[in-house]
Amino acid sequence: MLYDRVMVRISPEDGERRSSGGIVIPATAQMAKRLAWGDVFGVGTSVRHVKVGDRVLFNPEDQLEVEVQGTTYLVMRERDLHAVASELTEHGTGLYL
């Protein structure tokens, strides 16, 4: 990756979802714009706040798609990321924004 670009793969669990009542909502269902979680697989030399392996929150609809060795990735600028999740192990467990 070059400059401030980040290559992300959308997390597989962002496909089908279940409602609180147990109804399966397919990934193709039309809903309001929804942010997605993904894993960072590549970063450019000018990226400052994200590293490979981080889990990030972003809008997948406005990004460029690329296929590398049969796997689909999204390429975006670092400024298009909304959050980076990190595990906080000193004071608890889980993901914190």
UniProtKB/TrEMBL annotation:
<dbReference type="GO" id="GO:0005524">
    <property type="term" value="F:ATP binding"/>
</dbReference>
<dbReference type="InterPro" id="IPR011032">
    <property type="entry name" value="GroES-like_sf"/>
</dbReference>
<keyword id="KW-0143">Chaperone</keyword>
<protein>
    <submittedName>
        <fullName>Chaperonin GroES</fullName>
    </submittedName>
</protein>
<dbReference type="InterPro" id="IPR020818">
    <property type="entry name" value="Chaperonin_GroES"/>
</dbReference>
<dbReference type="Pfam" id="PF00166">
    <property type="entry name" value="Cpn10"/>
</dbReference>
<comment type="similarity">
    <text>Belongs to the GroES chaperonin family.</text>
</comment>
<dbReference type="InterPro" id="IPR037124">
    <property type="entry name" value="Chaperonin_GroES_sf"/>
</dbReference>
<dbReference type="GO" id="GO:0044183">
    <property type="term" value="F:protein folding chaperone"/>
</dbReference>
